[in-house]
Amino acid sequence: MEENPLHPFELHHYINLSLFGIDISINKAVLLMWVVIALVSFLLIRAARSRQLVPTRLQNLAEVLVDFIRGIILDTMGPAGMRFFPFIATLFLFILFANLLGLIPGSYTVTSQIIVTAVFAVTVYVMSLVLGFALHGVKFISILVPPGTPGWLLPLMVPIELISQLARPVSLAVRLFANMTAGHVILGVLFGLAIGGGLLIGWLPFAFTIAMNALEVGIAFIQAYIFTVLTCVYLGDAITLHGHGQESHAH
Amino acid sequence: MDSAASALLGMGLAAAGFAGAGVGIGYIFGKMIEAVARQPEAEGRVGKYMWIGFALVEAIALYGLVIAFIIMGLRK
Known about the structure:
The complex is a heterodimer of chains A (251) and B (76).
Chain A: E1 13-15, E2 18-19, E3 22-23, E4 26-27, H1 28-49, H2 57-76, H3 85-102, H4 114-136, H5 154-240, H6 244-250
Antiparallel strand pairs in A: 1-4, 2-3
Chain B: H1 3-15, H2 18-38, H3 43-74
Helix pairs in contact in B: 1-3, 2-3
């Protein structure tokens, strides 16, 4: 039988732990998540500790990041969304650093585990539902009817909108997971070809791995960006109830 | 047909969905170039939406990959 291309994604327990019957063993993904959290916290705390009018290099980086995330929120949710800034920024930075750290050979991409992305997506979706019902009450149900729908189209539009609503957390989770997994599978296949081809022809797939790595850095960033933008769009839908369209067209 | 062969066929067919994403990505970048050729100053704003669209289309191709993986998992 051929080798399973998903073999590098298998997790093995380093330390077996269990809490009230729940398996909380330490494995590579857990370690990498700690590394991501430690790295992000370290960088940002160090950048913010000695703030200066003329920023240092690290402070510059932090300012660019904060400004970027702020731009996403203002573009999609408007000023009302700024109270979600800590949540959105945490989500973005975690996904971005997890994606990027996963590209280092020998480390592990946390976001290539569908359980990780699924927890993010379901959290975001449940948050948007709770927010919508808290802000608008039962009127939030009208999110199933796009504005300007004629009455006779309702039996058609409501099921379609219901399905598109329910597909949101699934697509959000699978998009990130599949992109990360696919990129690493392609890298693995190319490295396999490079090793199998020997010196005579193996340099060609090896050159391709370098190009793919460059593309993967881009994908890592784009996917973190997409996840954040869609999170903002979903939360913005819940806040303004169809309203964010007009708002974003206004400027 | 034995089940191993049909599973391999199914995986191949799931991967055929990449064709649609190829069309989609070509369309996105082609339209982007058209747009920028007409209005070069819009590049920054159009480019943002282009990358979002690119990632969305690419993700659809990867759903096919996920289905292929699911079939591979069922095959054992």
